[in-house]
Amino acid sequence: MMPLKMEFVLSALILSCFHSFVLSDSQGDALYALKNSLNASAKQLMDWNPNQVNPCTWSNVICDPSNNVISVTLSSMQLSGTLSPKIGILNTLSTLILQGNDITGEMPKELGNLSNLTKLDLGNNRLMGEIPSTLGNLKKLQYFTLQGNGITGEIPKELGYLSNLTTLDLENNRLTGEIPSNLGNLKKLQFLILNQNNLTGTIPKSLSSIHQSLINLQLASNDLSGQIPEDLFQVPKYNFTGNRLNCGRNFQHLCASDNDSGGSHKPKIGLIVGIVGGLIGLLLFATVLCFLWKSSRRGYKREVYVDVAGEVDRRIAFGQLRRFAWRELQVATENFSEKNVLGQGGFGKVYKGVLGDNTKVAVKRLTDYESPGGDAAFQREVEMISVAVHRNLLRLIGFCTTPTERLLVYPFMQNLSVAYRLREVKPGEPVLDWPTRKRVALGTARGLEYLHEHCNPKIIHRDVKAANVLLDEDFEAVVGDFGLAKLVDVRKTNVTTQVRGTMGHIAPEYLSTGKSSERTDVFGYGIMLLELVTGQRAIDFSRLEEEDDVLLLDHVKKLEREKRLDAIVDRNLNRNYDIQEVEMMIQVALLCTQPSPEDRPAMSEVVRMLEGEGLAERWEEWQHVEVSRRQEYERLQRRFDWGEDSLYHQDAIELSGGR
After folding, report:
1. Within this chain, do residues 395 and 438 fall inside the same structural domain, yes or no?
2. pLDDT the model gives residue 228
3. How many domains is the chain built from?
4. What CATH number should be reported for the domain holding residue 353?
5. Do the beta carbons of residue 592 and residue 507 sit within 8 Å?
6. What number is the average pLDDT over the span 231-259?
7. Cα dist. 387→165, 235, 489 in Å?
8. Cβ atoms within 10 A of the Cβ of 181, count?
């Protein structure tokens, strides 16, 4: 007879398995209904199979360790059809992104059942009808964008109950009525974008109460009237044009000319201003022509640059972010001369440049820029990245866009990258000493921790390596290129399958599935730690001459098992290091590079371990797991090690488990 305790345990396990099965089954049904309602073609979402109970293996779907669906991303897949009401079954969902398709019909009220949703992006579709008031139930929602649809009706006041909302983008719809006054209750709201609708009434005074949290306030091209609350002119970026608003006496100079303040004499003044402006323009044009003609007569050889229409040198009022003209960056980099190339990676080349005021900059000329999202999508992502401000993150100065170019402008880091200081220093230049390497390790960890745990929405780097960690004048670590993968992929149709990164630094799950997370960054960080300790590249084929370990990770693991730590450390340090600190850094690196992403520590844990807290316990636990894994591997090797002669005399071998 089975002991009572054992019977209880088995019953609990059976119930748990049954619950997991039912949960996966219902979620799979909901996703399959969504696929059908979106009219996915035979070649789209082929692995969304109703006969496969667990949807966690399906493309564009991410689950948590308990097999709950937490993310569905179907961006720019040319899907049509409508949204299935069954989507409300996915109540564990935290991210739903369907932007850039051709989805029609109304937004189902069942969206209000997604109580764990933090990001909802339905932009650039053809949705109709009203915004369901049930969205007011999404108390965790942080990011909501619906721009570029045909939504009608009023903005539901229930959106004012979403206390965690940071972005509300309803641009380019057909919304009517007044702006709900209770939007002023959203103390975390940073982006409020309501351009190009048919909104009426006044701007609620309640918005003044959140002017300090607002970063971008866009109310252009509506039918708003009345006076603009003065506090809103303190928002870093705002646009009130195309309304019938009064800026008030103190701020009239800050309003654009098409903000009609209501007086009957305005059309006449506008006509006079237009005539005078036209005459001045003609005079300026004639002066320029005269100058060019005289210059040609004198044999004046200076090159004349012509900007693409609309690309004028101007500042956008978004903190200190600047929009550069193409010609300014062309001149600064000497027409993007190869002699000014600082580096080249998966996102494009980086050029050294000198602006007109002698400021040195680094200009990244992006590749993979083509997109249906265009300039607006790129600028929106640039603005999101520019909000990430931390001493260990590279600050974005500005950007430039033309129909064929996307460029980012950063401060010039005079000590270049960690990779350069480890492997490319010229004779006479200093090598990174051990205290500096420790400081770089901790600074990089703090920068990544900020991106993962303090940015909203969080930013995943996807290419963490020594070449992307720069050094300022004090040799402090500055993480660069963060957010670039998102900047590029936001305009790609195959976001979830295009792997961004550098071989040897890419986490195994990202390489095999194309799905990235914070833990893929943790893996890359672990490899970067090994670069810091050894000074070597992540992949080195020269090691084939001595051993089989081409990968730096395998090479270090082998030497660590053999307790040959001195053979690991960069010879350029000339033994000027603390062996215990080296051991600690290697242990952190090996914890970060575990095969399973769930086993890797978060970056906040990494910071604590580098500061001397909690490493011993994690390392002891890891050693037990690693020993068991190695023993199992050796057992399998012995099982299939038949010797050379037996290749011709193999008996049939039954492999356990389904293939």
Report:
1. no
2. 92
3. 3
4. 3.30.200.20
5. no
6. 72
7. 16, 14, 19
8. 16
Catalytic: 481?
no
The structure tokens listed for 19 are 């619950």
Are 114 and 68 part of one and the same domain? yes
Structure tokens at 601: 């520590």
Task: In whole angstroms, give the CA distance from residue 393 to residue 9.
Answer: 50
Q: Looking at the domain assignment, is residue 267 inside a domain?
A: no
Question: What strand order describes the sheet that includes 61-63?
Answer: 61-63, 69-73, 95-97, 119-121, 143-145, 167-169, 191-193, 216-218, 237-239
Residue partners of 600: CB distance under 8 A and separation at least 6: 519, 522, 523, 526, 591, 592, 593, 594
CATH number, domain at 74?
3.80.10.10
Report field, pTM of the whole predicted structure over 0.85 = no
Last residue of a domain, one of 358, 387, 412: 412
Q: Which residues, in sequence order, are CB contacts of 288 under 8 Å at separation 6+?
A: none
Half-sphere exposure of 597 (CA within 13 A, CB side): 20
Using alpha carbons, select from 524, 291, 285, 570 the residue that is nearest to residue 422. Answer: 570
- Note whether 445 and 429 are same-domain residues: yes
Within a domain: residue 500? yes
Among 121, 169, 463, 570, the one annotated catalytic: 463
**Claim to verify: residue 513 and residue 537 sit in the same structural domain:** yes
CB atoms near residue 625 (< 10 Å): 12
Domain residues for the domain of 66 are 23-254
Is residue 579 domain-shared with residue 610, that is, in the same domain? yes
pLDDT tens digits for 369-388?
554 455 666 676 677 677 77
What are the b/e assignments for 89-119, b being 16+ CB within 10 Å?
A: bbebbbbbbbbbbebbbebbebbbbbebbbb
In the block, which residue shows the tokens 């990202």?
510
